[in-house]
Amino acid sequence: MNVNELIEELRNSGIHQESVLQAIQDIPRELFIEKELEDLAYENRALPIESQQTISQPYIVALMTQTLNLKGTEKILEIGTGSGYQTAILSKLCRTVVTIERIPQLLSTAKNNLESLRFSNIIYVSGDGTLGYEKEAPYDGIIVTAATPTVPDSFLSQLKENGRLVIPVGTRKNQSLELWIKRDGEFRVTELCPCRFVPLIGQQGWNDLNQDV
Ligand code: SAM
Q1: Terminal-to-terminal C-alpha distance of the chain
Q2: Residue owning the nearest CA to atom 18 of ligand 1
Q3: Which of 95, 103, 54 is nearest to 77 (CA)?
């Protein structure tokens, strides 16, 4: 599949925000994956990256971004930088991205790639994203690209009024992608679709050694 075919497939799957489709058209996904997998860059599937992690499926990246409903003025917190591909999409569509990754080597590779594409509105944080990032809070949106058994309190408290949290919640094997919207300090939750992410590991996520459910 090439990028135009991928865009067509995303449109047919319900991705309708032109700004999101344009960002996917513009950002070279091949830059964020290993050379040997370059031919698969525009397949609509997740692919392995270093440290046994994954670059998310383009449909999921597009859906999560579309769900944030970005206008260009937002400060967004991303938990799980991974390859940096989702970060690049967000960087094009909002004012500031704060991205947190627990594996330093991944953060370093992602930062190099993003800087080579001249993205300059990204704050890189190394550490446990289950605690959010109080220093830059509050956020207009929080996007979590790893799965958690429950929603960490830090994400709820660091979200602005009318802010949006997009997060996969469930077991280690199966999750539901959820949208949480904060209104008058309360949360309205909508289930978007079933999904399967790598685990969010940290104080308010999974224990690294815990292989249950
Ligand atoms: N959005 C990424 C992309 O486009 O490449 C994919 C991210 S990958 C599915 C999930 C990432 O979350 C992994 O890189 C993993 O190391 C990271 N992660 C897991 N637990 C974390 C935590 N507590 N804090 C920060 N990052 C975490």
Answers
A1: 35
A2: 80
A3: 95
Q: Find the helix packing angle between 58-68 and 3-12, rounded to 10°.
A: 60
Residue 211 clears pLDDT 70, i.e. is over it: no
Please state the atom number of ligand 1 nearest to the C-alpha of residue 103.
16
Compute the distance between CA of residue 61 and CA of residue 42 in angstroms, rounded to an integer.
13
| Interval between CA 147 and ligand 1 midpoint (Å) | 9
Residue 126 has pLDDT above 90, yes or no: yes
Rounded to whole angstroms, how far apart are CA atoms 189 and 51? 32
Domain segments of the chain as ranges:
3-195
Please give the Cα distance from 48 to 171 (Å, whole number): 21
CA dihedral (66, 72, 76, 78) in degrees, to 10, reads 50
Please check the confidence at residue 157 and state whether its pLDDT lies above 80: yes
CATH classification of 3-195, choosing from 3.20.20.80, 3.40.50.150, 3.40.50.300, 3.40.50.720? 3.40.50.150
Catalytic residues: 56
Q: State whether the beta carbon of 100 lies less than 6 angstroms from ligand 1.
A: yes
What is the SS3 assignment for 55? strand
Global pTM value: 0.96
The pLDDT of residue 142 is above 90? yes
